[in-house]
């Protein structure tokens, strides 16, 4: 004689099997989606970098970059800068940094460079006196790099950096004009 609970138990077990199968299917789909996103990020083809990105970051010319790097070198160890007015921190917007990275990435793609071979070198500079609030302020400048044939990270060559415009608007590949503190100190934790 069969128990009355057998059909109920069989139905419950069948439904549990169906739900667990569905749950495992959904988990597998989420894993595939995440793997696709990771692959996209690793390949450098993120959606933030459309092919028509217009430069919207602050830059300086190669000549100004070279002058400010040399001015930084000559100011090290000297008494020209007092500790109170020395740069304590630098600030830039995420949007400006993202825009810069997208412009560099797109230009590298046009040159046939692999996105995985790109990088940034950060140079310390000091603004030469010119009658602005940035006089003598320590700052940084970003220069794109690519992996050379020897496998080393190489700065974009001077001829590429000296081209005064990379698109209309006069932008160069040298990102700068990053806000220093003192000058822009609102919200700074350590002054």
Describe this structure in words.
The chain has 191 residues and is α+β, with helices and mostly antiparallel strands. The protein contains 4 helices and 5 strands. The strands form 2 sheets. It has a 3-stranded antiparallel sheet. A two-stranded antiparallel ribbon has the order 1-5. The chain is elongated. The mean pLDDT is 76.
Main beta sheet? 3 strands, antiparallel
Strand content: 5-15%
The H/E string reads HHEHEEEHE
The overall pLDDT, averaged over residues, is 76
Radius of gyration: 27 Å
| Strand order in the sheet with the most strands | 2-3-4
Can you give the helix content as a percent range? Answer: 25-40%
Distance between the termini: 85 Å
Parts with pLDDT < 50 across at least 5 consecutive residues? none
Number of distinct helices: 4
Structural class: alpha+beta
The count of DSSP E runs of length 2 or more, i.e. the number of strands, is: 5
The gross shape turns out to be: elongated
């Amino acid at each position: 004689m069969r128990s009355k609970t057998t059909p109920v138990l069989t139905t419950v077990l069948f439904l549990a099997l169906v739900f667990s199968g569905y749950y495992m299917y959904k988990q597998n789909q989420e894993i595939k989606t995440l793997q696709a996103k990771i692959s996209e990020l690793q390949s450098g083809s993120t959606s933030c970098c459309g092919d028509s990105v217009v430069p919207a970051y602050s830059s300086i010319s190669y000549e100004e970059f070279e002058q400010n790097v040399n001015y930084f070198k000559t100011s090290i160890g000297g008494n020209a800068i007092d500790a109170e007015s020395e740069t304590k921190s630098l600030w830039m917007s995420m949007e400006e940094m993202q825009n810069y990275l997208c412009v560099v990435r797109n230009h590298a793609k046009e040159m046939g460079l692999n996105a995985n071979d790109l990088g940034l070198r950060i140079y310390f500079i000091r603004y030469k006196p010119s009658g602005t609030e940035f006089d003598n302020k320590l700052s940084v400048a970003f220069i794109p790099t690519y992996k050379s044939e020897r496998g080393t990270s190489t700065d974009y060559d001077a001829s590429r950096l000296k081209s005064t415009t990379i698109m209309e608007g006069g932008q160069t590949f040298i990102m700068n004009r990053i806000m220093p503190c003192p000058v822009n100190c609102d919200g700074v934790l350590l002054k």
